[in-house]
Write a structure and sequence with these properties.
Number of strands: 31
Distance between the termini: 40 Å
Radius of gyration: 31 Å
Mean pLDDT: 81
Helix content: 10-25%
Shape: flat
Largest sheet: 9 strands, antiparallel
Number of domains: 2
């Protein structure tokens, strides 16, 4: 929704007003909601174990991220006396000034900054920057003891990243120091969406026995039609809720306006699902899964984070991805397995063998070192062949080989990814009674009807959204292997 800004020097009310942090503090209620429904380990079931954010209204909601005040700033251009340097120049030799152009004013007078070769070419800023269009121009000099030193051209090309080192001054009668830097919040926004389903049941179908008993995913046999219809209603309701949370794509314009309308004539809002919010996160593609590569990527993601935040990383994947992970860990552990045969070989029974034995086991965790444990969790949504049509050359769908890290720690004691709802709208259920009322306390021949039809209609809906608080704490590893 907004980008972060950087500045140095005096911070006034105008600064705070410009970046929007003087608005009233955002507040929300926290509610815990745990659903024990047996539709597999889907995304809604996974997120329901954490705190759910509850808002008072269905207006779009926002949250802020504060980045680190210390950061790299990419160089736009390096000049000598206003002229861009070339490979034949010797910038900084004999104390000559080097003009550095940056996209923002993150540094100040007196600061010493360094590029890619930190200890070799320290540069001291000689004055506060001068604006030049949307850029800022700094006068600098090499801070070394050898007047013949100069910075090579390749250390000053566009894109070279510079960071603040320190602000060094004279031991005697110094006149000023360097200034600190600030980073404004990045504002994120999402919208609530509402899903709604309904189903009409003829009055004479209540408790009607079925000649063929239909099993559900739990193995329960549905012997009457209404039991099965209720189960299927719940199944589709849960599926649509999962798809909205996971795959919803915002239909807001760049200005945050919703132009589409539904049949009521009112605006239709679709919030961003987790996948759309993940697009700003860490993402890597792989052809052949390699455990050493995977370990390196995990280390990249967990560096500069508190050890307590990253001791246990849970990765969600499909059944094929879990098996691929197992195969990779088993290859790594192959040298040690002979010493643990009792854990892999066991006695069993068989109708055609006198001394039946079994062999097996599946690796679901891997300690990669640095007090980091990676655990795999299988999500049934990743194996949905109906939604995911792209086949993987090794079998199954390409999605089944995807690995998503949902969280690399907590923020203020709360999970990084949360469900969000509106108070009183997390689950809406009701029915219209006809000539027969299946939910009447006095039996289906109730005298109170909402319509004369010999049928009743079940209605269900919810207002729901999700919040990825910090996209830098999530990551995706996606297979791009093709035939």
């Amino acid at each position: 929704m907004t980008e972060g800004a950087s500045w140095t020097g005096l911070t006034t009310e105008n600064n705070l007003g410009y970046i929007g942090v003087t608005q009233p503090q955002k507040a929300s209620k926290i509610a815990t909601k745990i659903f024990n429904q047996s539709f597999g380990t889907d995304m809604y079931g996974y997120l329901s174990q954490f705190k759910m954010k509850t808002y008072d209204t269905d207006d779009d909601f926002t949250w802020d991220l504060i980045g680190s005040p210390t950061k790299n700033v990419a160089l736009v251009e390096a000049r000598i006396d206003g002229v861009a340097i070339t490979g034949s120049d010797t910038p900084g030799i004999n104390g000559t000034e080097i003009e550095l152009v940056f996209p923002n004013a993150h540094f100040s007078d007196v600061n010493v900054i360094v590029g890619h070769k930190n200890e070799v070419y320290p540069l001291q800023i000689l004055a506060n920057p001068e604006p030049e269009g949307s850029y800022w121009v700094y006068r600098t000099r090499l801070l070394t003891g050898n007047q013949s030193d100069f910075m090579p051209f390749e250390e000053l090309v566009a894109g070279t990243r510079f960071s603040r080192e320190f602000s060094v001054v004279s031991l005697s009668m110094s006149k000023k120091g360097g200034e600190i830097a600030f980073t404004s919040p990045l504002t994120m926004r999402n919208a609530f969406s509402m899903i709604r389903l309904q189903h009409k049941v003829p009055g004479n179908m209540k408790n009607r026995p079925m000649a063929t008993h239909i099993p559900d995913d739990d193995g329960n046999l549905h012997k009457v039609w209404t039991d099965y219809a209720d189960y299927m209603f719940e199944y589709f309701y849960r599926m649509e809720k999962n798809n909205l949370i996971m795959f919803g794509r915002s239909n807001a314009t760049a200005a945050g306006v919703y132009n589409q309308k539904d049949r009521s004539g009112n605006k239709l809002k679709v919030g961003s699902g987790l996948r759309e919010q993940f697009e700003a996160a860490n993402k890597d593609y792989y052809t052949e899964f390699d455990l050493d590569w995977f370990k390196s990527k995990i280390m990249d993601l967990t560096e500069n984070k508190s050890p307590g935040d990253v001791t246990n990383i849970v990765i969600r994947t499909g059944r094929r991805g879990a098996m691929q992970f197992h195969d990779a860990v088993e290859d790594k552990a192959g040298a040690f397995i002979p010493n643990r045969t009792n854990d892999r070989i066991y006695n069993t029974t068989s109708s055609f063998a006198q001394k039946a034995m079994g062999y097996g086991g599946q690796f679901t965790e891997y300690h990669i070192g640095a007090n980091i444990k990676v655990s795999v969790s299988v999500d049934s949504m990743y194996d949905d062949r109906t939604r995911f049509k792209v086949e993987h050359p090794d079998g199954g769908t390409n999605e089944s080989y995807r690995y998503d890290i949902m969280d690399l720690g907590t923020t203020d004691g709360e999970p990084n990814i949360q469900l969000a709802t509106v108070a009183g709208s997390e689950d809406i259920w009701g029915y219209e009674a006809g000539l027969r009322n299946p939910y009447s306390a006095s039996g289906e021949r109730a005298t109170l009807m909402s319509n004369p039809e010999d049928a009743y209609t079940i209605h269900r809906g919810c207002v729901v959204s999700s919040c990825v608080k910090d996209p830098s704490r999530v990551a995706s590893f996606i297979s791009n292997k093709t035939n």
